[in-house]
Amino acid sequence: MEQNEYSKIEVYLDADNEPIATYKPPAQMELDTSMLEDGEHTIKFIALDAGNKRSVKKINFVVRNGPGIAVDGLKENDVVEGKLKLILNSFGGAYQENWEPNRAETPAPIPTWMWIIFISIAAWSMFYFINQWNPSQQYANTPTYRSAEILPSDNIGISNISSINGAEIYRKSCSSCHQENGQGLPKVFPSLVGNDVVLSDDPSEQIKTILFGLNGKTINGVKYNTPMPGMADQLSDEEVAAVINHERSSWGNNSRLIKPEQVHKIRINKN
Ligand code: HEC
Q: Which of 6, 83, 131, 141 could disulfide-link to 50, CB 3.0 to 4.6 Å?
């Protein structure tokens, strides 16, 4: 006689007096918790053997089929006053199979101090950037800030290029002959006012004259007996360019200005 034929297991839920199911062991059962209210429950198994001896097993369990709840801003036993700002979130009910973990993260606003830090960094970097483009006098002529047009050529070692002043060079090196007003002296030194070489778009001849001098040229019908001395040894490319630009923009002259590089080219080609 098989014991199994006479033994059975009854299943009771909570305080019910009637079993929800009766099985012949061994058995497999499915407990659908969705039929139960969320909260604490008790399941009770009563087994009876052939001789009608019974044993009881109770298991307490908690059903939670509803979504989880997160509350930010108020903890158990907090002491509070005034108005409270709470951030609420709920996540992951039993029926949402593919819920994403980030839904369980409670959203928090970006704190004000983060904005303050961000804005100050942005403002500081703009201030710094703008400052770079207005270098103080002390640094204006260092290689970092100097504009490309007045980079020093190979043959000079001038450290303070901003002191190069065409009018000043003209006064020191040229005015004794061509005069302060550029008009020279009749038959002795040619006038630079309205002079073809000074007004020419092509500065080559003017550059050559100042670097290497001039001798025996007839200018506006006048032949000059004294030569113009070359000044390649006294004047740097920058200084030659500056004095040429002074001639080109003074005494009513208004012709195209030049750059030291153009002087440099002619100087190294010796022509
Ligand atoms: C010692 C006197 C003297 C000095 C200093 C002098 N020049 Fe002259 N310059 C002359 C004479 C003289 C001529 C004409 C030479 C000739 O025609 O052969 C001349 C010619 C020129 C010409 C050429 C004009 C033409 O039509 O070809 C220019 C430009 C010029 N000088 C500019 C200058 C500049 C700029 C300086 C200063 C950096 C300078 N000179 C310094 C005496 C001088």
A: 6
